[in-house]
Amino acid sequence: MNSFDVAAILIAIAAAAGYINHRLLKLPVTSGTMVVALVSSLVVVTAEAAFPSLGLSANVALFLAEIDFNQTLMHGMLCFLLFAGALQVDLDGLLKNKWTIGALSTVGVLISAVVVGGASWWMFGIVGVPVSLMGCLVFGALVSPTDPVAVMGLLKELRAPKRLEAQIAGESFQ
Global pTM? Predict the structure, then answer.
């Protein structure tokens, strides 16, 4: 199976999940897609338990083994998601809120990284897991910046005020 086939199958599954969510579940897009994916996984597990001769889990495992997730996500999907999110950013709003955005994207992220890293180090110490403070601070730095694609989708869905949307979007894309 080549990469085109894998991409076609993944897009078809995502489209079906989106359609089911839109028509039946009526949940926010990300939550609905997750629920459909969980139900689909349960269907595969149940079908495998009920009909082991089908070898369904072996076929799914073979399909998933053929996918290079690093290549698919980092070099295939992420660039399109970031590009689509960046197209929706209001440049005038960014310029009007440049000082707030600058503060959020530097000082705010630094404070968050230190708080998350310090809290992680403290919690690991309580449970007896030896993790260095530097490792915890790196973890805090990794999780502190905002995910721009998720934030933009959520702000659009919630119909947030344009000023707030510009500030958070600017911080997210820094």
Answer: 0.49
